[in-house]
Amino acid sequence: MLRAVCLAGVVAIAPIAGLAETTPDVPTEAQMPHGSTLAAEDPELFALFHAMGLYDILEIMSIEGVDYAGDLEAEMFPGQGGPAWQALVGQIYGLDRITTQFESALPEEVFSDDHMAELAAFFASETGQRIVEGEILARREIMDPTVEEAANIIYREERAAESPRLQLLDEFVTANAMIDLNVSGALNSNFAFYRGLVDGGAFDVELPEDVMLAEVWGQEPELREETTLWLYSYQLMAYDDLTDEELRAYIALSETPAGQRLNRVLFSTFDAMFEAVSYNLGTAAAVFIAGDET
Question: Which domain holds residue 81?
Answer without folding.
Answer: 29-293
